[in-house]
Amino acid sequence: MAEEKIVNAAPEEEQAQDVNELRQIRVEKLEALQAAGKDPFQITTAEQTIHNAEIVERFEELENTDVCISGRMMSRRDMGKANFIDIRDRSGRMQVYVKIDEIGEENFAEFKKWDIGDIVEVKGFVFRTRRGEVSVHAKEVRLLTKSLLPLPEKFHGLTNTDTRYRRRYLDLIMNPDVKDTFIKRSLILREIRNYLDSQGFLEVETPVLVSNAGGAAARPFVTHHNALNEDFKLRISLELYLKRLIVGGMEKVYEIGRVFRNEGVDTRHNPEFTLMELYQAYTDYHGMMDLTENLYRHVAQAVLGTTKISYNGVEMDLGKPFERITMIDAVKKYAGIDWNEVKTLDDARTLADKHHIEYEKRHGKGDILAMFFEEYAEEHLIQPTFVMDHPIEISPLTKKKPEDPNFVERFEFFMNGWEMANAYSELNDPIDQRERFKAQEALLAQGDDEANTTDEDFLMALEYGMPPTGGIGFGIDRMCMLLTDSQAIRDVLLFPTMKSID
Q1: Closest C-alpha to 384, from 470, 285, 315, 480
Q2: Number of Cβ atoms within 10 Å of the Cβ of 430
Q3: Which CATH number does the domain housing residue 257 bear?
Q4: Are residues 186 and 50 in the same domain?
Q5: Does residue 436 belong to any structural domain of this protein?
Q6: pLDDT tens digits for 209-239?
Q7: Do 428 and 462 belong together in one domain?
Q8: 51-88 pLDDT, tens per residue?
Q9: Which residues pair with 67 in a beta bridge?
Q10: With contact defined as beta carbons under 8 Å apart, do 17 and 23 qualify?
Q11: What is the residue range of 276's domain?
C-alpha cells in the first residue's frame, strides 16, 4: 500500500505561503475548471438524501444502502489510489472512502485537485471500516463549490476571539461546539414560544422605530426619517406598545425582538440584544413569578433534559421552589443594614458615605437602597431568586404597594448573580402615571439621559382603561448564556456589535 499522507485544513507547505498566494493557486484551479466547462458555480442544486448524524444513528438499517451526502471537505488522508476524506454537514462529520477503481481515473485525478474547504457531493453506500468507523464508500463525487481561501490550520483552529466574532461563518466552520450553542439557542426560543402559546399567549410585533423610546432606563439610538423629516429612535424596550394591546383587550400578549440601547459593551451587554416581554391582564407580579418559575423549568427540561444546570462549574437547581426575598431583606441579609431604620434621605446619605457608596444630589432614599442592594446583595444570588418590592424612585411604570407607597410591586429575577428578568404589577392609573413621567422629566433636566420622557399617546390609552395587569421582561441572551454555559454574551449572538476595523 502507498504511504499514507494526511492533508488537514492547511498543510505545512501552505502554512509557509502567503494567503494571497494560496488564493491565487485556488483561483487558477477554478479557472481551469471553468475552461473545461466544469464551473462548480454553475451548479444550481445538489442532492442530500440524509445528514451525517442520521447515518451513524441508523447504521444497522442503513448498512450497504445507497445515500447521497453533501458538505464541506475538512481533511484528506491520501494513500495514492485511495483517499479518506472527512465531510462535515450541519449535523456533524462523516468519513468518506474514495477509490480510483470506483469513480474512474479521470474523476479521481480531478478529485485529487480539490482543496480543504471545498463543498462537495458524495453518492455511495454506507459501510463500517475495519477500524469500526461508520463511513460512506463513494461511487460518485462532485465538486459543488470551490473554496478560494484556505481554512485555519486544523490543530490550532480558530482561537482569536476578535476574529471569531467578526467572521462568525469561519467560527462555525472550524468550531463545531459553536454551532451547537446556536442550535441550542434556537431550541430555547422555540420552547419559550411553545410554553407561552400553550398558556394562551399571543405573539405579536410592535414598532422598532419609535418617536418616544420609553419603558426602560436607557439611552436610545437616534435616527432620522427622510420622507417624514422627523427624528425617530430605536426602541429600548417593548413595554409601552404591548400595554396598549392590553388596553385593546388582547389580555395575553408577548413579543420576542431586538431592542437597542446606546451603552457600552462587556461580557453581559451588547448594544443590540434580544428581549422578550409579556403582559397578562387580571394578574399581578405574583402571577409573573409563578409564570417565570414554570417557564424556566419547562425550557431547561425540554432543551437540556434536566432542571439542574451548571455554569462555570456552579450548579443551579431550577427544580426547587425559587427563593423570594424583598430588597430590604436582601440588604439586611448581605449588608447588615436594616433599611426600615433609615428614616430620612440624610440618614441614607450618611450610610452611603460610611460604606463608600457613590450617589448624586438627585438621588433619593430609594435610589440609595438600590445602590446598597447592587453593591452587597446581587453577587450572592446564585440560585434562582426573586427580589421583590423595589423603591418607587427606580420604578416609574409600576403600581405602588397599597400598604407602603414608597415601594412598588416589582421583582427582579436573579441567577448566578445576574439579573435575568424584571417584572411589575403594571401601573394602570393614568393620573399617577403622568406624575411619574413628570418626575422622570425632572431627572432628565438634571442630566439623567436614561430617564423616560412623557408619552402622551400611552397616557391616552391608559385613560380609556387598562385592567389590572402583570408584565415581565426577560433577557433572552443571558438565559442562553446560562443554559449553554457560555462565558460572554457575544458567544450567544451570531453577529455581535464590533468596532469597525480602520
Answers
A1: 315
A2: 17
A3: 3.30.930.10
A4: no
A5: yes
A6: 999 888 888 899 999 999 999 999 999 999 9
A7: yes
A8: 999 999 999 999 999 999 999 999 999 999 999 999 99
A9: 124
A10: no
A11: 174-322+383-492
Cα separation, 325 vs 317, whole angstroms: 17
> Which residues of the chain fall below pLDDT 50?
1-4, 9-14, 16, 155
- Condensed to tens digits (0 to 9), the pLDDT of residues 274-324 reads 999 999 999 999 999 999 999 999 999 999 999 999 999 999 999 999 999
Residue closest to 197 by CA, chosen among 283, 257, 256, 282: 256
Cα(500)–Cα(26) distance, integer angstroms = 29
**187 and 257 share a domain?**
yes
Average pLDDT of the chain to the nearest whole number: 93
Torsions phi, psi for 112 (to 5 deg): -65, -20
Main-chain phi, psi angles of 408, to 5 degrees: -125, 165
> Which grid coordinates are listed for 50?
440524509
Q: Which of 284, 279, 296 is nearest to 192 (CA)?
A: 296
d(CA 122, CA 119): 10
What CATH number should be reported for the domain holding residue 32?
Answer: 2.40.50.140
Query: What is the SS3 assignment for 392-451?
Result: HHHCCCECEECCEEEEEEEEEEEECCEEEEEEEEECCCHHHHHHHHHHHHHHHHCCCCCC
Q: Which DSSP letter does residue 51 get? A: -
Please tell me whether residues 150 and 188 are part of one structural domain. Answer: no
Whole-model pTM?
Answer: 0.90
